[in-house]
Amino acid sequence: MKQLPSIQSPTYTHGFSVPLDYAYISERGLTKKTIETLSSMKAEPEWMKKFRLDAYALYLQKTLPSWGPDLSSLSFDDIRYYVKPTDGEKRTWDDVPDSIKKTFDRLGTPQAEREYLAGIKNQFDSEVVQGQLKPIWEEKGVIFLSMDEALKKHPNLVRKHIGSVIPSGDNVFASLNSAVWSGGSFIYVPKNVEVSLPLQAYFRINAERAGQFERTLIIADEGSKVTYIEGCTSPSFSTSSLHSAVVEIIVEKGAHVEYITIQNWYKHVYNLVTKRALVKEEAVMVWTDCNLGSKITMKYPSYILAGKAAHGETLSLAFAGANQIQDTGSKAIHLAPYTTSSIVSKSISQGGGITSYRGLISIGPNAHHAKNHVSCDALLLDKNSISNTYPTQRVFTGDATITHEATVSKIGERQLFYLMSRGLTASQARAMIVRGFADPLIKKLPMEYAVELNRFIDLEMEGSVG
Questions:
Q1: pLDDT digit string (tens) for 384-415?
Q2: For 88-118, how does the pLDDT look when each residue is reduced to its tens digit (9 = 90+)?
Q3: Which residues are within 8 A (CB) of 344 and not within 5 positions of it... i.e. 6 or more apart?
Q4: Cα separation of 154 and 318, whole Å?
Q5: What is the spatial distance between Cα 432 and Cα 461, in angstroms, rounded to a whole number?
Q6: Residue 26, SS3 per DSSP
Q7: Which residues of 339-360 are buried (b: 16+ CB within 10 A; e: fewer)?
Q8: Distance between CA 47 and CA 90 in Å, rounded?
Q9: CA-CA distance, 144 to 83, in Å (whole number)?
Q10: pLDDT more than 70, % of the chain
Q11: Residue 191 to residues 222, 254, 419, Cα–Cα distance (Å)
């Protein structure tokens, strides 16, 4: 067993780390041997090992993107690509090691599972350590497993769909994830089944200089409905960590999927994620994406509207403080007629933080009568902060409707004076204005998560969140 150090920050509420006897910690840096060892330890089928090695070969050929934030300070050779906390996933809390159990108790996930979730998966570094689906949904045929479990129990389903929406060669981070993925969620919702309570995964980086590379695959069969929520936190180490997930979603005819992210990484995490959904006839895909914390985030949840009358929607909130870059947005690819999409992006910058909306709207030649609307609103809290907008529109049909609007504003002295004259302090008044700015997105969240996000925003305004 190997142990990594513990550290805690007085200013970041999720910045604690726990000392732990890890089952396995890989050496820093990525080699073919790292991947072969990972696959062997997981007792994977030969085809998955080949999938990984093929992706690694693609990764070695790729370069970092040159069009976004500068990633040159991220040292891939310093990252540990596989950190195994326990000897396997546990079904109940009683079986989870005490140190890990205390971490998730402190984060509140056991209470959330008991009170308002249909099921949960808790990932600690490279592995899902505990989780289960409530029996009522198991009886309806819903599958909710870690990807590692799914590979063992449903190998044909995994083999059929993994890489079908996001190929290994899609981009450098998709290649990296495909080579070293570990953990993440697999969800299958049967035809016409509506999961009325959310499913949740919580991703926790605990080890220093660790990479987390979960792989999530969601398949919503015809007429089904599901909401999936992910939360993310990490310790306040002074060294960099890397989070590079891949999320693939298949939304069959008439199905409805909502994917909610509330990210609260510490300020030394590089968050470089690829998320994409394939949306079929009359189906609906909704991304709700809330980004706080991290050093650099590059994330553009996208959907391919492949079936007639398919609909995609993105609701995005980014908050950048000092020494932070939130480069976020969305991509809407219209391939079929009468498809519709809506992107609402809200960003807040303070302390010299940089937020950027980066979006792509593509209307294919067969997507006649397609409609898209993009709304970008930025709030600057000081003169040193920056907000950028980089929209791209590609239209290959003469019968489509596209609208784009953008605003940049700042907190006015009259607003502050009005609120302070009614007894609020300046900091309370500013926080209230910011919450009001974010309210159109927050009110679409389940109540418990809306409360949590408001609390995070308040902490950001106090300079207390990464």
A1: 999 999 999 999 999 999 999 999 888 877 88
A2: 555 555 555 555 545 555 545 545 544 556 7
A3: 314, 315, 316, 375, 440, 441
A4: 37
A5: 10
A6: coil
A7: bbbbbbbbbbbbeebbbbbbbb
A8: 26
A9: 23
A10: 84
A11: 5, 10, 52
Q: How far apart are CA 212 and CA 168, in angstroms?
A: 17
SS3 of the chain: helix, strand, coil, percent, to 5 = 25, 40, 35
Structure token digits, residue 103: 């971490």
| Beta-strand pair 20-22/2-4 | antiparallel
Q: Are 267 and 240 in contact (CB under 8 A)?
A: no
In the predicted model, is pLDDT for residue 442 greater than 70?
A: yes
Nearest one of 288, 263, 274, 134 to 217, comparing CA atoms = 274
Q: Which tokens go with 128?
A: 């899902």
pLDDT in tens, 323-364: 999 999 999 999 999 999 999 999 999 999 999 999 999 999
Chain mean position to CA 383: 30
